[in-house]
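hey m, so remember when u said the tokens were messed up on ur end? i reran from scratch. heres the input so u can diff it against urs
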Amino acid sequence: MNIRRSIAASFVLLASAAPAMAQGDAAAGRSSYGVCAACHGANGEGNKALNAPALAGQSEAYLTRQLNNFRSGLRGGGTGDTYGAQMRPMAMSIASDAAVANVSAYIASMPVQNEAHDGGGDAAAGRGNYGVCAACHGANGEGNDALGGARLNILQDWYIIRQIANFKSGARGSAAGDTFGAQMKGMAATVANDAAAANVAAYIATLSN
């Protein structure tokens, strides 16, 4: 319990220091989404074959931060982050901060797509492991912008498993200045092994969105 409290407290401090994210114009962002749709789907449903996660319904603030991280090199430049490296030039093609905010607003406004999961992992076993995640991502995986926590209950299990592995290996969250990524890197280190990652991802797949 003390560990969970210290995690939450540290994120409160990080959130207080984080810059506010601009609110975008969803209508203006709709046309910009055409480039994203090639991999992430017309409805933001994602495509495992193209290594593209579901996006529809993700937090606007989180999307804005991640796109800007790709643009600046805070994300997608880590050794071993093959798919992040593929995403980086796509994010760099977005012309301005305003355009990033607009496309993020459009994606956030899209209805959540309930895509099939791979079905691996033991959700019952993962439920206990998720307690640490809930401190920042919410009890129902709904996310928490104030603490920098992404919405998880819209994501496919295979993507969650990959990102846990990326944080554990340092492929993600190691760039200087990636404050939230560094915090998540430490949290991912508490996931004991691949089986535990699959279990927690399986539990997240059961959460209502």
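this time it looks ok to me. The chain has one domain: 2-109+121-204. if urs says something different then somethings off w ur setup not the seq
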